[in-house]
Amino acid sequence: MDAKFVKVALLAGSASELFCCTSLPPSPLLKLVERYTDLHRDLVGTYEGELFRRPQPEVLHRMRGSFRDFLAREGLAELEPLFVLGMKAFGYE
């Protein structure tokens, strides 16, 4: 799984929609990805292109700190390896 998966999940609207044809229960990782995509949509809404509009002050406060801090506060720290893998796939260290 890489950054393309997360981007496709964001575009699909829900990670579970990507696997609508399977009868297997969603994995814990998939549930976390879906929670992240729902949270992302709640915080910044939907948007065209790569960048979203500047969030409201209360959203910026919720997003404060490092991305690692944000994931930990939101109970999504287990997704960090997925994001690291996605960044490394594009050549970032």
Summarize the structure in words.
- With 93 residues, the chain is mainly alpha-helical.
- It has 5 helices and no strands.
- The protein has one domain (3-89).
What is the topological layout?
Elements: H1 3-12, H2 28-44, H3 57-62, H4 67-73, H5 80-89
Return the average pLDDT rounded to an integer. Answer: 82
The number of helical runs is 5
Number of strands: 0
- Order of H and E elements: HHHHH
Poorly predicted ranges: none
Distance between the termini: 17 Å
Radius of gyration: 14 Å
User: What proportion of the residues is helical, as a percent range?
Assistant: 40-55%
Short descriptors:
54% helix; 93 residues; mainly alpha
Give a short summary of the structure.
With 93 residues, this protein is mostly helical. It has helices spanning 3-12, 28-44, 57-62, 67-73, 80-89.
